[in-house]
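Practice set, problem 2.
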Amino acid sequence: MPTRRWAKPGSGGKKVGKNPTDRGKKGSKKSVLTDEQGGPLGAVVAAANVNDHLLLEATIEAIVVERPEPSAERPQHLCLDGGYNNEPSREVAARHHYTAHIRPGGEEEGSYRKTATHKPRRWVVERTLAWLSKCRALLVRYDKHAENYLGLLQLACALLWYRRLHRLRAT
């Protein structure tokens, strides 16, 4: 873990130097695209210091199932968090024919309408990442090569789909 250095007393309590939120952070990042129930459709692995919006196009292109053609009657929605609130992310979503729903930064938690038609969306990906983290090899990265780690991530995604299919057949 990087060392933390603190500013002198009276300087407003601002941190100085390396901490886990710096851009020089070591580690890896999983970028996952899911369906509305949390089933993983595509996954990409990158260094932890890569901004999320730079992984958006690669994540969309990593979708392994054939995507239905969006139409005016049935548009396809892409729900993103505040890290994607920029023009390049909107361009990528438009280029791939998605209707982007990007939550602006600084928006209050309870400022949106909570109705049956407006369900929370972004937590679905967080839940899927939590499911994937139950696999020990994904929680702590033991593989040196990104290809091996991506292969384990894709295997875990396939296992999630297998379990879902098995649950649907049991009912």
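Problem 2, part (b): a different protein.
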Amino acid sequence: MSQNMIKVAPDTVAYGDGTTHKLMVEFAIPGAPTDTIVLKILGDSIHMTAPAKDIEYVAALALAWPVKPDKAEAVYEHGMLRIEVPFKDPMEDAVRVTIKIADETSKPKAIPAAATSTAGGRGGAKPLASQPALTS
């Protein structure tokens, strides 16, 4: 491989398939021998290099939604590298938190009804439009 290769960004199409819940990515890299393509996928990005004759295709995609890189599949056919990688469920690694029952000493104090405003807690004495005005 020559050090003077021109680096070129390949034509790229990337979209989410709602039916299969996968990210679909296609790189047009004609003339790149299959054994020279280097494809690396992280949970939030895809990186690809592929030398072909006097050029080297180089691509890096930052992903807006996390994927499962260990489940990715890639096929190279007729100069097109097609990649399918499932989206990661954002709650997949969530930890369920146990909820404790509060004891009597930690319960909030009740506010007596006389202390509440007639304005429905809006911070003013003016009644709501649906409430009758109070007169003394």
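Answer key, part (b): The chain is about 0% helix and 35% strand. Strands lie at 6-8, 11-17, 22-28, 38-41, 45-52, 55-62, 73-77, 80-86.
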